[in-house]
Amino acid sequence: METKKIVYLDGLKGLGCVIVFLTHFVYAFYYGMYHFQPESCHLPGNLDIAVGKSPLNLFFNGNTAVRLFLVISGYLLCRGFFLTGDKSRLVRSARKRYLRLMPAVLAVNAVICICMKLGLYYNTPAAAAAGSEEWFAGFNAFAPSFSGMLKESLYGCFLFGSNDYNGVLWTIQILFLGAYVDYALAAFVSRFRFRWLLYGLLAAALLRTDFLSICLGYVLCDLMHTDWSWRKRLCGCRPLNWLLLAAGLYFMSYPSAGFGYEGTIWGLLPLVLVNYYHIFGVLCFVTAVLNLEPLQQFFSMRGFLYLGRISYSLYLIHFLVTATFGARFLLTFYEILGYNLTSFLNLILISGITVLLSELSCRYVEPLSKKGEVLIGRIFDRR
After folding, report:
1. Domain ranges, ordered by start, for the chain
2. pTM as predicted
3. What is the DSSP string of 352-370?
């Protein structure tokens, strides 16, 4: 059985990475939108806080975006297996996983190490100017070493979540080790009748970890490929899926700070369960997209697909650009042009630079993964 690629999920991954980029821009230069501190606001009338407490915060809600990326990754990891029942797909994916992720991590970390040695990180003084010292000032504030960079790039981020050089690398451990949890579930549990009980126990065990999202993405994939008549009826119910979309957007836009929601549309929720609200919202949202053709067509638009193609490199590169060029640009021009005009121009410029560097990485660095995968495949085939 042939497996057709779901391009609209790639488009969604691209959107998620852009939201992470916007999140870090907001945290760095408009921290008041996130933490609701008047002294960190720059828009007239402290508009930063009003924006942060509105549904617009979804566009810079990085916690939600990361959950979206992890759920989609978990869904796609074993989809080919559920469509074909071919366990060799799992074996091939498992042996290629490290080489799929590592080259871009190493390349970006090497550039970061060089930039640190050259003193090109300006995030600490920029944080003082922006009022975001609580978040932006602490990154890359140490003496870099080539050996330390290699340790983080080759195994530290994969096994231990090390992210000293590149703050976003904490998710690589989840994408790597979490993938093997999903592969194991697919290989050894997916045919059991009572596997749903095991999934529940696993979710309970992972409840306080970031691995929950990628594993629930796998469970969603299993559910969507299970031949139950009631599931098919529910998936085909358009009103239910539009309701899931609305619920998903509501929970996904819950403020990441975990406070300041009083008097907002989220004040109705009885408990402060930020991560769980976001995960639940993402599951509702992705389920709706999987069942609603208008949403699939929307996220299959060329712009989303392009962002999906460069999403991994964009995710790894964007903070480097923000903390070097973005921070320097702010320090150079904000007293001349004014803070908000400088920040607007800054967003345009670092967006362009990030996309350009991501395109170069996608063309020349990520293909190294495929060459390594071919080599590993030949070694295993000989054995």
Report:
1. 7-382
2. 0.93
3. HHHHHHHHHHHHHTTHHHH
